[in-house]
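Quick one, probably user error.
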């Protein structure tokens, strides 16, 4: 596995491990602070992300920025990545083989950043990181810990953009406050 950011960047840029490589304009490794305490994990690049080579820069990204701002965080303070690094065609969800082939890159990012918290955005990230039985409506908002990493899942910003009733937005706000509280608690422990 890649032992440095340079190796990881090179490996992702040249990756042909799955069929998504054929349709990409750019790979999207992720961005933010490489010393971040919080690693936000989405599903995969959409159209804007594919064109710009940056995560969460389309409509869902603008909402993610607002969600972070609501708990006094900026995208520069966290790290933002995705389960898959190449855009699935027509924005479909990534398929199991694509996820399995790409997960070593996410694991490498976790190993390099060593965040305290993994904030999982949506079902794809929840299933990939927590396990195949993960269900976002049932399991969001519950803290889990594995190998010293604190993990919290919430709704994907794209799902929140489609949420007409506002019910999911209210739950997402509870999750964000819980994220902020855990972050402050962990910072307090370090001080
Ligand atoms: N949705 C995601 O899951 N990731 C992105 O980077 C953009 C939209």
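Nope, works fine. Designed sequence:
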């Amino acid at each position: 596995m890649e032992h440095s950011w340079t190796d990881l960047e090179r490996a992702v840029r040249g990756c042909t491990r799955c069929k998504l490589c054929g349709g990409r304009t750019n790979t999207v490794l992720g961005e933010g602070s490489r010393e971040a305490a919080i690693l936000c994990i989405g599903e995969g690049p959409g159209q804007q992300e594919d064109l710009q080579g940056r995560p969460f820069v389309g409509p869902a990204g603008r909402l993610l920025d607002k969600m972070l701002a609501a708990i006094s965080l900026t995208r520069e303070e966290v790290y933002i990545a995705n389960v898959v690094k190449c855009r699935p065609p027509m924005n479909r969800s990534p398929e199991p083989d694509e996820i399995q082939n790409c997960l070593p890159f996410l694991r490498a990012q976790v190993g390099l950043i060593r965040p305290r918290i993994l904030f999982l955005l949506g079902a794809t990230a929840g299933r990939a990181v927590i396990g195949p039985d993960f269900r976002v409506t049932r399991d969001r908002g519950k803290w889990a810990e594995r190998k010293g990493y604190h993990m919290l899942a919430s709704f994907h910003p794209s799902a929140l953009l489609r949420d007409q009733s506002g019910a999911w937005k209210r739950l997402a706000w509870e999750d964000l406050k819980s994220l902020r509280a855990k972050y402050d608690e962990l910072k307090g422990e370090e001080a």
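The chain has eight helices and six strands.
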